[in-house]
Amino acid sequence: MGKSIRFRLIVMNIIQWAVWGSYLTSLGSYLASVGLATRIGIFYAMQGIVSIFMPTLMGIVADKWVPAQRLLGFCHGIAGVAMIAAAFYGMTAGSSISFAALFSLYSISVAFYMPTIALSNSVAYNILEKNGYDTVKDFPPIRVFGTIGFICAMLFVNFMKDGNGVAFQYSYNQLLVSGICGLVMLLYCLTLPNCPCNKTSDGNVSIAERFGFNAFSLFKDRNMAVFFIFSMLLGVALQITNGFANPFITHFTEVPEFAQTWGARNANALISISQISETLGILLIPIAMKLFGIKKVMIISLFAWVLRFGLFGAGDTGSGIWMLILSMIVYGVAFDFFNISGSLYVNMRTTEKIQNSAQGLFMLMTNGIGATMGTLCAQAVVNHFVYNAAEPDWSTAWYIFAGYALVVALLFIFLFKDPKGDMSKIA
Asked: Mind listing the domains of the chain with CATH numbers?
């Protein structure tokens, strides 16, 4: 029974992350190819905008009314249909893409996909705990398969080509792949074990509790408040390389010295090293959490972001390819040591009553408010130094991002108090 449960959660994670991996790192290149390069940041910011409210709302629905595994499937179904519609629009419109039309369909899709990140975590935690597993020990080895699914989707769109010889990473086909994966996830979720809602018969429950808004009471705890604030500040960095790494690496095809290099022509495959590193980062989390504790793990993550951006600024696809590869390797620690550890920290500090809502709140701060500010500011920086500049200067843009991460890291060291084993539950 134990192996069956783990296997089913592994499959769930593979499909969950393949949906996103199909387009997340290559959408920027597709948008650039249809004349929307200066609006890349808006597309990625929409992921953040919907994450401000959708994960929290879906978390409340899962807590109170609809079993989490069923809601997870419904969200994927809506997101998948909308993404397939966006792909068909891209196919029929060709190079005459209307920003409003494509953006609208894309926005509907991400509005229902973004909540599934927190919901899938909640489903996994719920099923593991009900079967006697330790989430800190047993979840990371399961979650690592989600990254494998992400990598497989990335490599598929990198090497797969349409009838005209155009790689999926440069066309609307990446959206079609994502939408199909979403519909597969809908069907799969209907087969998962039930994750019952936390219904209450207490007539004296407040309106805030009834609608799940009591997750915001976590801000009354100083350390949790600081944690969520820094989740937002780090969230600024999360989508920058997803939106601009592919266009940055691909731009080397326009530089004679690097035009024929493998990296310049296979940006998504090169970026996939980041996700391969992420699989290792996830497996290190239980060890790191035990050895260092939550504060040091997150500090390591913050300084890894400094390296991530700094190495992008210094590297190229020629003799400097080693710096890009090292940046990809560092990403595993940068992303996992905060996102996965942070999610586990929230789960450990909250009661079952508000866990789904608390995960939604974590998503709100990181992929919502933080990522929205980050991608919009990053687009302004890239527009200034790259797309609107006489001589594109990607390096300066990356160094600015590295400087920001360094400031956040230093502030976190002084302001976040190490729990030192105090993981008391907050209702």
From this structure: 2-192+209-415 (1.20.1250.20)
Report the candidate in 85, 88, 104, 93 with the shortest Cα–Cα distance to residue 33.
Answer: 93
Can you name the residues that pair with 354 across neighbouring β-strands?
none
Q: How far apart are CA 260 and CA 226, in angstroms?
A: 48
More confident: 294 or 153: 153
CB atoms within 10 A of CB 55: 27
Other Cβ atoms less than 10 A from the Cβ of 159: the count is 13
Residue pair 195/123 in contact by the 8 Å Cβ criterion:
yes
DSSP state string for 34-102 = TT-GGGHHHHHHHHHHHHHHHHHHHHHHHHHTS-HHHHHHHHHHHHHHHHHHHHHHHHHHTT---HHHH
Side-chain-facing half-sphere of 165: CA atoms under 13 Å:
0
The model's pLDDT over 127-145, given as tens digits with 9 standing for 90+, comes to 999 998 888 789 888 988 9
The CA distance from 92 to 55, in Å, is: 32
pLDDT at residue 174 is higher than 60:
yes
What is the DSSP code string of 243-297?
A: HHHHHHHHGGGGSTTTTT-HHHH-HHHHHHHHHHHHHHHHHHHHHHHHHHHHHHH
Report CA-CA distances (Å) from 56 to 35, 116, 117, 261, 366.
Answer: 34, 11, 11, 44, 12
